[in-house]
Design goal:
alpha/beta, Immunoglobulin-like, 8-stranded parallel barrel, 16 helices, binds calcium ion
Amino acid sequence: MNNKTVKAFTALSMAMMFTYAPAIAASVNQDDAEYQSWPVYSGEDLELDVTPQRANFRLWAPSAEAVRLSIYPTDRNSAASEVIQMNKSDNGTWFVSLPGNHYGEFYTFSIKHQGRWLDETPGVWAKAVGTNGHRAAIIDFAATDPEGWAYDRGPKTDNITDAVIYEMHHRDFSVDHSSGIVNKGKFLALTEQGTHNTTGEATGIDHLKELGVTHVHILPSYDYNSVDEANLPANQYNWGYDPYNYNAPEGSYSTNPSDPEARVREMKEMIKSLHDAGIGVIMDVVYNHTADNDKSNFSLTAPGYYYRHRPDGSYSDASACGNETASERRQMSDFIVNSVKYWAKEYHIDGFRFDLMAIHDIETMDRVAEELKKINLSIFVYGEGWTAGDSPLPASQRALKENVSKMDGIAVFSDDIRDAIKGHYSREEDRGFATGKPGNEETVKIGIVASTAHPQVDYSKGNNSKFAYASAPTQIINYVSCHDDLTLTDKLAKSMPASTEAERQRAARLAQTIVFTSQGTPFMFAGEEVFRDKKGVHNSYKSPDSINAIDWSLKHDNAEQYEYYRQLIKLRKSHPAFRMTTADDIARYLVFDKVDRDNLISYSLRDHANGDEWKEIKLVFNGNAEPVEVKIPKGDWIVIAEDGKLNADGLHAAKGGKMTVAPVSALILARK
Ligand code: CA
């Protein structure tokens, strides 16, 4: 384990945007031209192509002076049964074919570089691995398919704006005893039906179905470095932003890390279970850096090539984790594209969330989206449109939030709405719109229109971005918190120290109401529907379960909070007015009202927006600690939300006129 690579700077990396002037970029790294001239192998049969009759090995290692393949009988603690010299082949690859049936065996590569043999590596394309991923495994993938896998499909989702995304870590979700789940912290947790807490409320997959989310976004689930798979009883925790084998599942989430088939089969079983429940699976992918530098699988097969460097030859570090990959080089670009294609095809993954996406170049991200759409039109791609430090890649080529309109089929997180609603992500005591701090109104409005151009939104008053960077709402993910930084619960506690828990829950409801009714795609952190916290820990990437686990007794204690969230999700899913797909529609159908005080936003979705059955939906958000009186046009209204309560089918009727918006709450009205 390498400490500096396990998200040590995550609060910085995930939330901070760097849009440096490209001062460094003008002088292209000296290595770059040389690397760009290396041969490229674009075939998808790299490293292992196996049938019952033979195993073909093809390693891309253009600078190697020689390459050895070692075959092992077990995943560890055994000597090689065979060591074979590989032969130089096409396009920078080395090849050898072994006759016979090799299922059940393990292998590594080693290259000779500048006269010395480098450490053994499972390669960069290991699709199955043993304990801790040090040896790649030869398995029959057909044997890993759950029953009915051939007919398994994720939900058909026409537009990303129809999705409701739930971000989850496997351990957070199931490891606490209150989950009632048997396979705690495992892929299989999400295959268990009928689980509940001690007071009888549903947990696990039943909870997800009841809540109504459309997609689960799982934190890194490829094989990562930090958790020792040989010592699972130690109950180590890590978010997993320390990639080791990109194309094999993480062993600690399987019931047996030493059985290479188990992690594959169990992850597929999890996905099938979610698909059977109508829920899609989005995977968090971290191609922007590796856990190790010189000892990574990239470095041990093609030293230098896969990374960017500074002019002095050191690793550049836009990830703030010790290195950054070089997607502008074709073999790296192909690696990313082929890797996500592989997960989409072999595991039926429905979407990808790119960590620090702006470390990648726009062209690669465009290829990712284009190739995935060829597999399944319902696959979504979104990412963090920022880096965590400066990069040699010119800003104009980075997949930045500000460049999202240049990318087709990619969405970015809106840090604009996030910080405007709750206050600055890292200044704990800072407040936002929902907690009564004036000056955030225009930035919240930027979030409501999904960062698209709107005649009533003044981008010059935006706190973060100063222009309408999205050309469509399908390019924006709205959220108020995620695994990074304080949970919403903790943020409210730190920024409202004199408040009661009831007041903080009220603020959370207002905050999420703004997110879930905004244009764009809503995203929430698992457990916020039961008001989970992380005991005030900002960066819990390796904190114990006692910090990270969701206590499901909260679902009982905070039943009203949960019901509010459930109704909020139902409201959004029932009404296309919240899910417009073009900037033109938003500019036409979403009309802000003039208001004359701070911390108040009022707007309408008019004229059956986006084909909605409701002619008009009126939303008023009051971030003040006092009630505010507003004038609503006279008519036959249904009150959907008021005074911290929400029912998607309506609370009661109202006639409009003067109405009171309770402190820290949303008033939502609808008329046919
Ligand atoms: Ca691992």
